[in-house]
Design the sequence.
């Protein structure tokens, strides 16, 4: 009886420089020479050079080629790496070889991960990308999904072994769908017919990844350049940064094209000072976070655009956990994380269910970013607008933001100001941090039935009339108008804290 031939590594000289190029996976058809960056294709026992790839954009990932882990009881090893660019930033896909010789994809976007397995397509053809409208629902292989993203993307660099390679720099469509059980279905239109992969979000700890790159290998000095508006020296501390603000002139500087690309800027006036300084370290929910970005946002009801309310968002970063948001609104503080799955929204839009919890619609409104400072992993712009909905369940909030190309969900939980002050060692500013902290007045129950509520309203109105004369400006303050923002994440972040995966 014949026995299965064990898989063996294959090595051949690079046709560009003569250095050895290794193939470990039998399914790998392409590889990138680590010496001269030549893209080579394997044709039998001969390698042919088909071009050269750009240097990898150093995103300071903890992953590296050769790292290994386990997925659903089966071991895997990372053999290749593909970097893509889309409208709001970049993301990385790692080629993983499973123990049975098949390949999978570990997508990485700013510290969050999705492990995906190629899927056979259904009997009928996959529709064109233009047929998938963001926010709509559709069925693939008999499963209902919500369309979360429809983007034009392009491959910008590659490394290691690759099963297939889209044309470098050529734009193609990528559609991403989400299910109620947090599955992620990606449709890649760089091939015909389109390729489909099904995945789930996972942390590095859940994947039991070993062989991670030592964080000490990172260049902690950062990249330096001059502000294109005023010439002041600027430093990028995070290599995932797509935009940052100049501390001298408050301009928003776009670095999404890399340091070699054209630097674009937008001038900002009326600077808003964050209560928690950029760079501050804080301990929240058992994890150490650093404040890397801050933005002030403004909301208004579509039925009455003259009524505005403002809130603020701090972007927090951890090397292994990625990014989360600390939201400061008139109703209190909350910690917000991107949601992986697609909540099921009731037909009348008045409720949504996510991971077994039912949330009730609190408000619908339009949101706009009107001031930013710090570094951001997506290409932030002043004036960015989204359509938003907030659903509540007790102290928890489920928020939806929709732009023409993306629909993102985030889940948040409220916390009192004392917790925020302790987390960031700001006890001396505790009075400034106080809000309508979690308690009876922020309950979902209607407070107007209570007599003390009306006494409170009268006193507040008198104080506002006599001392402030309606001077509160929602462009720079957390002002309450027709509504008040409870929680929510920022444009550009969903399952993995970024605009994709």
Sequence:
């Amino acid at each position: 009886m014949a026995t299965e031939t064990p898989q063996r590594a294959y090595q051949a000289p690079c046709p560009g420089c003569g250095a050895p190029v290794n193939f470990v996976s039998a399914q790998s058809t392409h590889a990138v020479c680590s010496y001269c960056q030549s893209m080579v294709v394997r044709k039998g026992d001969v390698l042919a050079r088909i071009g050269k790839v750009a240097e990898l954009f150093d995103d300071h990932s903890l992953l590296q080629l050769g790292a290994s882990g386990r997925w659903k009881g089966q071991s895997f090893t990372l053999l290749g790496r593909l970097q893509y660019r889309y409208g709001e930033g970049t993301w990385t896909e790692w080629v993983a070889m499973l123990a049975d010789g098949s390949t999978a994809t570990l997508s990485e976007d700013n510290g969050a991960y999705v492990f995906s397995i190629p899927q056979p397509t259904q009997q009928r053809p996959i529709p064109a990308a233009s047929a998938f409208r963001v926010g709509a629902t559709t069925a693939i292989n008999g499963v209902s999904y919500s369309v979360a993203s429809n983007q034009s993307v392009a491959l910008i660099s590659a490394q290691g072994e690759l099963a297939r390679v889209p044309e470098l720099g050529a734009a193609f469509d990528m559609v991403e769908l989400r299910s109620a059980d947090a599955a992620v279905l990606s449709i890649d239109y760089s091939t015909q017919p389109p390729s489909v992969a099904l995945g789930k979000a996972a942390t590095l700890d859940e994947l039991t990844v070993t062989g991670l790159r030592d964080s000490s290998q990172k260049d902690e000095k950062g990249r330096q350049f001059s502000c294109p508006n005023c010439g002041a020296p600027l430093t990028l501390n995070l290599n995932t940064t797509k935009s940052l603000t100049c501390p001298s002139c408050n301009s928003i500087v776009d670095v999404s094209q890399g340091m070699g690309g054209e630097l674009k800027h937008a001038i900002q006036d009326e600077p808003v000072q964050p209560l928690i300084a950029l760079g501050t370290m804080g301990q929240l929910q058992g994890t150490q976070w650093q404040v890397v970005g801050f933005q002030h946002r403004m909301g208004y009801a579509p039925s009455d655009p003259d009524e505005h309310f403002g809130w603020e968002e701090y972007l927090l970063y951890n090397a292994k956990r990625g990014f989360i948001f600390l939201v400061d609104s008139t109703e209190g503080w909350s910690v917000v994380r991107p949601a992986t799955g697609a909540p099921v929204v009731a037909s009348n839009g008045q409720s949504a269910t996510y991971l077994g919890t039912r949330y009730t619609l609190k408000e619908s409104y339009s949101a706009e970013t009107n001031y930013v400072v710090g570094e951001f992993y997506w290409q932030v712009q002043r004036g960015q607008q989204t359509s938003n909905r907030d659903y509540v369940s007790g102290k928890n909030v489920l928020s939806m933001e929709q732009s023409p190309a993306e629909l993102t969900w985030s889940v948040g939980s409220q916390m009192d100001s004392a917790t925020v002050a302790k987390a960031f060692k700001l006890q001396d500013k505790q009075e400034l941090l106080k809000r309508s902290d979690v308690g009876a007045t922020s309950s979902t129950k209607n407070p107007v039935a209570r007599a003390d509520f009306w006494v409170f309203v009268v006193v507040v109105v008198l104080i506002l009339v006599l001392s402030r004369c309606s001077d509160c400006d929602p462009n720079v303050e957390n002002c309450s108008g027709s509504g008040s923002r409870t929680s929510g994440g920022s444009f550009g972040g969903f399952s993995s804290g970024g605009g994709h995966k």
